[in-house]
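Hi L.,

You mentioned the student needs an example of a multi-chain input paired with its predicted structure. This one should do, with 542 residues in total across all chains.
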Amino acid sequence: MTILTRRRFLIGSTFGASALALTGYGMLRQNAELGTVIGAAEKLTMKAQRLLQGRDALAREFAETDISPSFRVNGTSAPDSEAYTHLVEGKFASWRLKIDGLVERPQELSLADLKKLPARSQITRHDCVEGWSAIGKWTGVPLGSLLTSVGLKPSARFAVFHCADELERTLDGSGRYYESIDLIDAFHPQTILAYAMSGQDLSVGHGAPLRLRVERQLGYKQAKYVMRIEIVDSFAALWGGNGGFWEDRGYEWYAGI
Amino acid sequence: MKQETRHSLPSQRRRAVLIQRHSVVTRLTHWLNMLCLGFLLLSGLQIFNAYPQLHWGQYGADADPALFKIGASESDGGPHGFMKIGGVSVPTTGVLGLSKVEGEWTPRAFPAWLTLPSYQDLAAGRRWHFFFAWTFVINGLVYLGYGLLSGHFRRDLAPDRHELAPRHIWRETIDHARLRFPSGEQARNYNTLQKLTYIIVIAGPLPLMVLTGLTMSPGVDAAFPVLLDIFDGRQSARTLHFITASLLVLFVIVHVAMVVLSGPWNNMRSMITGRYAVRQEGSDA
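Structure written out for the whole complex:
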């Protein structure tokens, strides 16, 4: 008798649970709002990684012999604008990096100015969010030293990188590439504004004249064609409000995983 | 015919007693683990689809040699799906490489019905994957902590010396192959093959999934560069992550087959309510 009732209970509960799971599954697949619940993991990931890394844990640096024979060009391969074409033709002589926002002394730097500053070279692995990796050698100016020289206001929290490329053609310009990192990553010793790759000036495909390297995060953080660095206390007012081109399209702002 | 009907009547059975087979922690963590692995697999295949090839070493991209690749190619006047292992290409049109999405032939590594979400959306796939990865890890730690502290591992999973004798294991293997499963008193505990399988899965592939997964994270690599030495690079870790996931799928298939073959209702009840029926010889129950 016990067996019979238990069996009935068992059958009922199993089918009930499966039905519930299936409906739930179907519902979740269609519900965009759910992203926020599921996205809670991102904060946990960031907190856990920051705790385990400490501020200055370095991404592995490789030897010259480890460099990928070919480094894939990804995202924009050449910004499609007259202004950029003009810059390329002039060998970026008229290009200026603007640093403004919540800084004491806004500045404009030419490529020659940047090259005169103390540089750092590093051979690191670039990890695309899609799954592939390539190892390359980058040379550039540590972002931290630039930010120190312009002086951050106390309310500064993020560095936003405005780029020359439009990855998606839109009427309102929201397809323009941009990225942002917080000050922990901005002052990380391996975070550099690279103007050279493998000892040569950056090619157009890899982001000439200047690209960001944030070595503890994924490829989409490594903004190419950097034109302006804006220091902000919040990126809520920029484009989609999520702090980056891909972030506005559903990707995590913290890209350490 | 008649005998069969009589057999299915509980009152006509040999006397069965219900024993407490699984603790509430084992049952909850088991089902939560199943849920996590299901979501992790489907979202993992979505992520794989974003770059459907595998490499060995620290780096690996389109231009580098691949160990494994799923793709589509145009030949003989039409598109074909293929899976390439080393130098061998296997046609897989309809399932891998090229499959129908809402009636349209679409190039995609794993078909829509195997990915979460079904449509191509790497960002969403990643969010699902990491949410359930955290749930899986926390759930796994609860189970490990419980298993160690409660004596569950020592009592239920650790085989004793006589069980480990080759002769005994051979006997059980033959019995399993003949689909003769322990009954009566012998069914009270896990048999040796079960114990060994569960120990291996708990200590091997499951932690390996976590570690190879973490090795793909540039942030974790900065914190623990040793992971890159253990797995010989991020791309190797990605390959091992895929292979280990395949082994887990194989385990689940065998596991479910064994559940079905050795008394599905009794097994399911024991994993849901905790109670497992053991038939007893004689009249005292």
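You could point out the following to them. The two ends of chain B are 28 Å apart (CA to CA). Confidence is low (pLDDT under 50) at residues 1-9 of chain B.

Best wishes,
N.
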